[in-house]
Amino acid sequence: MTHRYQTQEDIIIRQCMPADFIENAVSYQPWESDTIIVGYPRSGTTWLAYILYLLQNGGEPIDFSERLWEAVPEIGFGRHVKHSFGNYFVQLADMATHPRLLRTHLPYEKSPIHPKSKCIYISRNPFDTAVSLYDEIKTINEFSGNFNDFFTYFLHGQTDYNDYFDHQKGWFQRKSNQFVLWITYEDLFTYPRTVIKQIGNYMGGIYQRNVNDEYVMKEIIKHSSFREMKSNENIIVPSNPNRINGYSFFQHGKVGEYKSIFTEDQIKRLAEKFKREFQDLPLIHSWDKYNLPSSKRD
C-alpha cells in the first residue's frame, strides 16, 4: 500500500500539490467584497462554484474559452513569475474580477477570510465523502491500497485537510461571529431549486434577481447537472497528469454511494465517531431525513 501525502504547516495535502501551496494560501489578502465557497474535499465545492458562476451569469454556461478554476479560483493556487527584480507568486484569486467568487478547503483556523465576507459552506455526509475521496485519490495514483486501508486513515483524520469532523466543527463555529450560509450536498442534490434559491437570496443583488427568473433557474439546474458538468470537465476542472486514463473527476455523485462499499463494521465505527464528534452540535441532525447510519437512534 502506498499513501502519497505531504504535510505543510500541520495540514495534510496531496503529494502532487505545490510545495508552497499552504504558505501561499495562508498569506492571501482577503477583501470584504469576496464570497468564499468552503467545504471538505469531495463535498461539492466545484459543483457549488459552478452554480454560483451560472447565477452570476444569468444561467449562461461557461464558454469553451474560459476555465472555471480561473473564474472561481481556489485560494493558494497561482503562478510563479520570474522578473529581473526577483521572483513573484501571483494568486489566481488576485487576477479574478471583483467582487470575487473564491473557494478553499482550508480549515477555519488557517483561512485568510475577511470577517465581513459572504461565506457558503457545503457539507456532505462522511460516509459518501469517504468513498468519493478514496475514488479520486485512487484515480490520480495518490493511494494504492484498498478501501479498508483508506478507511483507517479517514477515521483517524489522516486524509486531505486533516480530520473531516474537525473541519466541519471549526467552520460551524465561525457562524457565531459571521453569517455563514450552511448547506448540504444532499439537499442540493435532492432539492436543487430550493437550495439554489436559498443561495441567491443569501447573495442578494443579481444573484437574487436571477433565482427569481424562471428561465434562468431552469438553465442553472440544466447546466449544473452531473451529466452536463461531466461533459464539460475539461473547462470545469484542471487536468491532472497523474489521473489514470479513462477516469473522470466526476465519479458518481449520488447520495448513499457508501452502501455498496462500506462493511457493517465500518458503518458502525464511523457512525459512532459521528455521534461522538457532533453530539453537542446541531450538525448531528444534518442528515436526519436521509436515514444515514449516524441518524439512527440507539
Keywords:
alpha/beta, 298 residues, Rossmann fold
Task: Report a brief summary of the structure.
With 298 residues, the protein is of the alpha/beta class. The chain has 14 helices and eight strands.
Give an account of the 3D structure.
This protein has 298 residues and is an alpha/beta fold. The chain has a single domain, classed as Rossmann fold (3-Layer(aba) Sandwich), CATH 3.40.50. The chain contains 14 helices and eight strands. The chain has helices spanning 21-26, 45-56, 68-71, 92-95, 126-139, 147-155, 164-174, 185-190, 192-203, 205-211, 214-223, 226-231, 233-236, 264-278, and strands at residues 5-8, 11-14, 35-38, 78-83, 86-91, 101-104, 118-123, 180-184. The strands form three sheets. It has a four-stranded parallel β-sheet, sandwiched between helices. It has a two-stranded antiparallel ribbon with strand order 1-2. Strands 4-5 form a two-stranded antiparallel sheet. A hairpin with a 2-residue loop joins β1 and β2. α9 runs antiparallel to α10 (205-211). The chain is globular. The chain starts with a strand and ends in a 20-residue tail after the last helix. The model has no long low-confidence stretch (mean pLDDT 91).
